[in-house]
Amino acid sequence: MVINQASLKRDGVQDWVSLRATAVIITFFSLYMVWFFVSTPQVTFEIWQGLFSALWMKVFTFATLVCIMIHVRIGLWQVLSDYVKNARLRVLLQYLMNLLAFAYVLVGLFVLWGV
Amino acid sequence: MNRETADGAQGEISDDENSTLQGSNGQQIVKKQRPVNLQLNTISFPPAAISSILHRVTGVALFFALIFVIWAWAVSVSSAEGFDMVVECMNGVLGKLIAIGTVSAFIYHLLGGLRHMVMDMGHWEEMQSGNNSARIIIGLWIVLTVLVGVVVW
């Protein structure tokens, strides 16, 4: 049997795995930031900028922002599809919110670029 | 007979409310009069339901809170003047409230997420254990929020 999947299909298993895989990375980033604030007695501009000028921290931060985008794409879809019954309004809200999530990633990219 | 349904709604059913019909083949068909209780403010939500709705509310709240978080991060990391400005904002009442609210929402969402992952592993799936774990994370959330509130304020 040949199955031709030529459309952009939603995959529940992929959503399930993506939600958790991204959550783990966001958690580790947050725990690292908590540790940074707890272990740094006085956070000055030099220390703060120095943290994000390291390549590994740029990668970690950017990866977290991409994870947030994937995470909210699934999470907001779940919430919107439960509470906003009007299809046009739901699609519009989803479009705007996904755009905002993408903007977060781009802001992160350009800020990290300049640090 | 007092019954508790899966969503925690309490309803009264007395046996004489159940009507009995006679089927065509002689068998009895019992038609149960299920409780109808759609007055939302009279339904007491079980902890698991409250936990679920809190997870959604904090998730959406965090999405919008990121506007402030990413703004503060972008400005503070770009220049020394920006850093001073963000520090000044964070010392204001509004800045502190937004910070505490964001961290609080994050703590709940994280605890709720961890609870979800434990459930993925097949634990806390029964009514009792599910409600208990929900009570525990809600309690832990309140304690941690107070702690963060004291530290930030």
TrEMBL record, chain A:
It holds the Pfam family Sdh_cyt. A ubiquinone binds at residue 83. CDD domains: SQR_TypeC_SdhD. InterPro entries: SQR/QFR_C/D, Succ_DH_anchor, SuccDH_FuR_B_TM-su. It is a multi-pass membrane protein. The chain crosses the membrane at residues 21-39, 59-80, 92-113. Pathway: Carbohydrate metabolism; tricarboxylic acid cycle. It is found in: Cell inner membrane. The keyword Protein biosynthesis does not apply. Its cofactor is heme. It comes from the Bacteria. GO terms for molecular function: electron transfer activity; heme binding; metal ion binding. GO terms for biological process: cytochrome complex assembly; tricarboxylic acid cycle. GO terms for cellular component: plasma membrane. Keywords: Cell inner membrane, Cell membrane, Electron transport, Heme, Iron, Membrane, Metal-binding, Transmembrane, Transmembrane helix, Transport, Tricarboxylic acid cycle. Heme binds at residue 71. Its main location: membrane. The heme is bound between the two transmembrane subunits. PANTHER family: SUCCINATE DEHYDROGENASE HYDROPHOBIC MEMBRANE ANCHOR SUBUNIT. Membrane-anchoring subunit of succinate dehydrogenase (SDH). This is Succinate dehydrogenase hydrophobic membrane anchor subunit. It comes from Bowmanella dokdonensis.
